[in-house]
Specification:
By secondary structure, the protein is mostly helical. The protein is built from 5 helices and no strands. Helix content is 61%, strand content 0%. The two termini are 42 Å apart. It comes from Corynebacterium alimapuense.
Length: 129
């Protein structure tokens, strides 16, 4: 069930105030999860994992011909494992960067990435002084 625009706005405001008050706790609570609740699950990460799986299966199937194909299986497993770790750490997620207009408001239909939000908060703290 998706949230309405007002609920999303309120949720963003709560998250921003939490990050402003206690950045360490806020980043630990919201860290690693994308907007859909899946950490970094992307087409690129899945493709790398499938390539690793194919290498693993191919190495096992061809191991009867030569024992050198076992190394292909090991490399395939490492590629699969690496792709899984990469996606879990958020490397596979595609974050959309948003451009802001002069008023500091986001344009309609754009999403704010986590790094640009933190950068904007940092700038606002020091511009006020």
């Amino acid at each position: 069930m998706s949230l309405s625009e007002q609920e999303q706005r309120v949720l963003r405001e709560i998250e921003q105030s939490l990050l402003a008050e206690d950045p360490k706790f806020g980043s630990s609570v919201s860290g690693g999860l994308g907007e859909a609740g899946v950490a970094g699950l992307s087409l690129r990460g899945i493709a790398v994992a499938v390539i690793g799986l194919l290498m693993l299966i191919g190495g096992v199937a061809l191991a009867a011909q030569s024992l050198w194909f076992i190394s292909l299986s090991l490399v395939g497993f490492l590629v699969m494992f690496g792709a899984g770790v990469w996606m879990l750490r958020g490397g596979g997620s595609v974050s959309s960067t948003s451009s802001r207009d002069r008023g500091g408001r986001k344009s309609s239909g754009e999403k704010i990435s986590k790094s640009s939000t933190m950068e904007e908060d940092f700038r606002r703290r020091f511009e006020g002084k």
